[in-house]
Amino acid sequence: MASTETTSATATAGEADDGPAADTPAGAAAKTPVARDTAGDLAGLEAGLDALESTVVDRQPWLRTLAAKAFPPLIAIAIVLGLWQLAYHFQLKPHYLLPSPVDVARSLQEKWLQGTLLSYVWTSISRGALGFLASVVIGTLLGLVVARVKAVRAAIGPILSGLQSLPSVAWVPAAIIWFGLSDATIYAVVLLGAVPSIANGLVAGVDQISPLYLRAGRTIGATGLAGVRHVLLPASLPGYIAGLKQGWAFSWRSLMAAELIVNAPDLGTGLGQLLEQGREIGDMSWVLSAILLILIVGIGIELLIFAPIERRVLRSRGLLVKS
User: Fold this and answer.
1) Is pLDDT above 80 for 199?
2) Which of 10, 36, 263, 304 lies at a 20 to 30 A Cα distance from 248?
3) Interval 31-81: pLDDT, tens
4) How crowded is the C-beta side of 125, counted as CA atoms within 13 Å?
5) Residue 169, CA atoms < 13 Å, CB-side half-sphere
6) Between 183-207 and 117-148, two packed helices, what is the crossing angle to 10 degrees?
């Protein structure tokens, strides 16, 4: 009887060992110390690799983020205004040559109350935007041809670099002779200033593409226009965006140079013409107000349009990591 009970107990224990827990990997790892250690090492290795690929960023309150981004430029502006006020107070220049920040603000307020300030700004922005869009189309096509055709690159590549270094104001006299005092003169100067920068930026971006991407594109049949759309432009996007930023800076600078010189009643009044009018009447507050508006518009478009696009592109490619 005792022997029968012992045999049953042994069978029961055997069935317990061969139960569901033994059929699972966890059960096998629990049974074998070596398997348990190996599974632990693999889990640790996987966690380490995940930690390398991801960056843990604590979400900060929006007020703290705003303060961190707004305070440095505000402090810099306060320092500049303070130094400007000190220069005015100690009369480093006579007051009619160096007005105070308050005088410049009062001049801006007068033009705002006259209802003409926004029209000046809009005239220049619309001209700059139209000229820049045309420059993007021409510069992109030219950059692709220069980047992919060796004969064209050898022929006009150095010319593009030379045109990029040529001051935009140098084109104004020639454009006036070609097109007269018209909008065509202004747009011609903008195109000649911006197209080389955009084309050179795209060429630099294409040069940085890994040959592996190009071979992979040809393997899947992405050739011709399909290769440009799906391989060249996406892969060269960081350099292309940098070229677009520089192209906008050149187009805005070229526009101001053209508006300073090309003055006609039927052209309307942009910020460059506003600056020239202040110079003609010798109103330094007017001149500094126009310079301030040109600076604000240029910085505003850079921060509101190009900087977010650049951050998004770089972050999507792992080139920009939040800290």
Assistant:
1) yes
2) 263
3) 455 455 555 555 555 555 444 444 544 556 666 766 667 777 788 888 988
4) 15
5) 7
6) 40
Residues in Cβ contact with 277 at an 8 Å cutoff, skipping those fewer than 6 apart: 269, 286
- Residue 276 gets the label, from left (phi > 0), alpha (psi -120 to 50) or beta, of alpha
Whether 26 shows a pLDDT value over 90: the answer reads no
Return contacts of 179-185, CB within 8 angstroms, 24+ apart. Answer: 181/262, 181/263, 181/264, 181/267, 182/262, 182/264, 182/267, 183/127, 183/267, 185/258, 185/262
Q: What is the mean pLDDT of the chain?
A: 77
What is the pTM assigned to this prediction? 0.71
> Cα separation of 101 and 186, whole Å?
32
Q: How far is Cα 109 from Cα 25, in angstroms, rounded to an integer? A: 77
The token pair at 89 is 């107070």
219 token code pair: 């393997």
Q: How far apart are CA 192 and CA 154, in angstroms?
A: 20
pLDDT (tens digit, 9 = 90+) per residue, 255-271? Answer: 998 888 887 777 778 88
23 to each of 15, 35, 226, how far by Cα in Å? Answer: 12, 14, 53
Residue 305 has pLDDT above 60, yes or no: yes
**Measured distance CA(104)–CA(110) in Å, rounded:** 10
Helices (H), the chain: 2-17, 20-23, 25-31, 33-53, 62-89, 101-114, 117-148, 150-165, 171-179, 183-207, 211-219, 224-227, 233-235, 237-261, 271-281, 284-301, 307-316
Rg over CA atoms, the chain:
33
For the stretch 83-98, pLDDT in tens is 888 888 888 888 888 8
Structure-block tokens of residue 62: 């929006």
pLDDT per position as a tens digit, 137-170? 999 999 889 888 888 888 888 888 888 888 888 8
